[in-house]
Amino acid sequence: MKLNQATDYAIRSVLHLSGLPFGQVVEAKLIAEEENIPMRFLLKIMRLLTQAGIVESYRGVNGGYALARNPSEITMLDVVEAIEGPIAINRCLIAPEYCSKNFSEHCPVHEALFELQQSMVEHLKQYNFQMLRERMK
Amino acid sequence: MKLNQATDYAIRSVLHLSGLPFGQVVEAKLIAEEENIPMRFLLKIMRLLTQAGIVESYRGVNGGYALARNPSEITMLDVVEAIEGPIAINRCLIAPEYCSKNFSEHCPVHEALFELQQSMVEHLKQYNFQMLRERMK
DNA sequence: TAATTGTATACCGCATAAGTATACTTTATA
DNA sequence: TATAAAGTATACTTATGCGGTATACAATTA
């Protein structure tokens, strides 16, 4: 029931970028140092954020990363899902073959867990990075 | 961000017991068969539930397990915590030394994750096993 | 054309999850 | 009072995924 470390790093990286003038490009090395993230691992994470359209990457000299949209339009859910994929708190919620009862009857556990999951998703959607940034003050 | 399999099994086992007249003792073998749980693994899980005071165990011939309290007084949170320990969606929420910023400043990520965690805990507390049982009909 | 950036892919080591095995204790009952 | 039927305790196994590295490569700028 834990977010993984990569997600934590991703959130902090996006938060970092959110503190800069929009469009400003920052090299990975700088983020890694300031946020205390192992460099090569960060690069891997940034690629996921890039693929998810949260961040834009620039290669070559003076390359780096910049946000692809305004901080107010990036939610924590966006970042979590970019790294971990869709949220699923129980494997039976994505892969029905894992239902230990094989769907033989109406399953209140499945239902309750799904409701919990939905509430988490909604909760994560509430937070955008402009908000988080403001909360730092 | 997943509950583990043991927790799923635990929930289903408690749900199973909740369907019986209060105090009725059922042997592990039966639960294992009906709920499709590997026998020896179930025994391990049941011990955690026993230690948590959710279930009572009886050894020897005609032994087995019975609920220690009424289904209406057992919540999903009780069961989840019995198996997984206290909920912590980010390691920085329990072990401050994992804070990648070393507490050097006010951390909105920590704060937001804590709020999410609290909402999950509250949510899990809402569900008791009498409710879940009724939902099966 | 060389230095500086990110990309792609594959790999490693460890911790944890999920499950199994072995030996033991308790209890009912024949 | 012995024995079979239950759970207990502990240690082991096996597989998976997490967190992180390494190597080779591609793009870009000066």
Helix and strand topology:
The structure is a homodimer of 137-residue chains.
Chain A: H1 5-18, H2 28-35, H3 39-51, E1 55-58, E2 64-67, H4 76-84, H5 108-126, H6 129-135
Antiparallel strand pairs in A: 1-2
Chain A binds a DNA duplex (30 and 30 nucleotides) through residues 4-6, 27-29, 38, 40-41, 43-44, 46-47, 50, 57-65.
Keywords:
homodimer; 137 residues; mainly alpha; two-stranded antiparallel ribbon; DNA-binding
Plain-language structure description:
The structure is a homodimer of 137-residue chains. With 137 residues, the first copy, chain A, is mostly helical. Helix content of chain A is 51%, strand content 6%. Chain A contains 6 helices and 2 strands. Chain A has a two-stranded antiparallel ribbon. The first copy, chain A, is elongated, with a radius of gyration of 18 Å. The A-B interface holds A 1-5, 8-9, 11-12, 15, 35-37, 76, 80, 84, 87-92, 100-102, 105-109, 111-113, 115-116, 119-120, 123-124, 127, 131-133, 135-136 and B 1-5, 8-9, 11-12, 15, 35-37, 76, 80, 84, 87-92, 100-102, 105-109, 111-113, 115-116, 119-120, 123-124, 127, 132-133, 135-136. The structure holds a DNA duplex (30 and 30 nucleotides).
Write a concise synopsis of the structure shown:
The structure is a homodimer of 137-residue chains. Helices cover 51% and strands 6% of the residues of chain A.
Structural class of chain A: mainly alpha
Total helical segments of chain A = 6
Largest sheet, strands/sense/barrel of chain A:
2 strands, antiparallel
The oligomerization state is homodimer
Ends of chain A: how far apart? Answer: 30 Å
Strand content of chain A: 5-15%
Radius of gyration of chain A: 18 Å
Helix content of chain A: 40-55%
Query: Largest chain interface and its two residue counts?
Result: A-B, 45 and 44 residues
- Major sheet of chain A: order of its strands? 1-2
Rounded average pLDDT of chain A: 93
What's the total count of β strands of chain A?
2
Weakly predicted, low-confidence segments of chain A:
none
Listing every helix as H and every strand as E from the N terminus to the C terminus, the arrangement of chain A reads HHHEEHHH
| General form of chain A | elongated
